[in-house]
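SAMPLE LOG
Freezer: B-3
Tube label: C17
Construct: single chain, 400 aa
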Amino acid sequence: MQKFLNLLLCLYICIAITSCVSDKDSSVEAFPETEDASEEKQLSRKEIIALIESSITDAEAEAAEKGIIQIEEKDAEETQKEKAEKALNFALPEVTGTQQIADFIEKHYEERHTIPFEAYSGQLELPDRDLLPFGAIVLESYRLAYPDKKMKIYEKEDDWCIELDGMIFAWADGRLLPFSKRVEAENYGKQIIYPNTGKPRNPKSYSQDDIAELMKKGTKAALAAEKPVDNTFTQFLLKTNDRIVTERNIRSMNFLGRRLNAHKMVIPFFEKIDSEIKAAAKTNKEVAKFIADISEIGCYNWRTIDGTAGRRSYHSYGLAIDIAVKGNKKPTYWEWVRTWNSKWMLVPQTSLWLPPEPVIKIFEKYGFVWGGTWDEYDTMHFEYRPELAVLAYLSLADEE
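STRUCTURE (predicted):
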């Protein structure tokens, strides 16, 4: 019976399309013949498919109206899920390593972009927040930021998940955990992930509540209350689960006249940053002085972050860099200032040591975050966090 109905539907559609083609409306006056009008319009494959789908949909609706067929309605929740998953996982550039990613960014980046990595995320048309919650957007940010990893995002057992090399991680109320650990989420601290727009910190914007919260940072009470952050996803992504494995991925290079040990993933980015900063120094005296005044550059260093309960520093992945200059007497790092100034968070940005603006922008262009944008400031520090720049773009696009 079903085969008969399908055959009947196909026949009905053919008759409808034939009727549309053969019928002419004699009351419509033909357009005058011109060179443009006489040329046949070449439809793209996408347009042809859309035209066919539209004809079939119209014919189906008319057949259902006349009682020839019955159209089964999809479950509303399943349709929402399908829409959400289609909004994610769109095709990325075919890249196999970070060298190609660096080349791709350099080719497509324009100075007028205020958000780095726009070339990756510009194709995405996001639905509203009800369809894609923040956790799904976070996971999409990781997928876009690391296109060579071929990650996949989907919903599983009411949690948004990201799959990487066969391992499944779930977004569990602000924690990115191995799927089996998601039920233990309350035992872990929340992920340090936020939309990085590149805007410097602004103490004048802090409320009294903000100041009170910041004053707790680094205290014994705060450290005692801090829960451990599960770093499994980051370590799996970067292949840095322990010191021995991490150091197999560390490579040495020359950077702004100093020796640098960094994760092989970011070597292509450091090479391009080095080249562009040196090029800027030829026309910018401040950048030239910055290079000449560099006293020390540090990158790979297996350690935890000062003022935390053992959180791993991005230096321990070989993805963060500190640049110190000779003769600097201005503050650079909040934890050092906190030892002698309880109002460390209110130190104006202009009173801190700051790298030249062109240097900051070049780092940000290649997916690095500058520590001068943080409330817990670290102005000599840059770290490779492209997912934060992508998250900023997706979050802004979602609000528009």
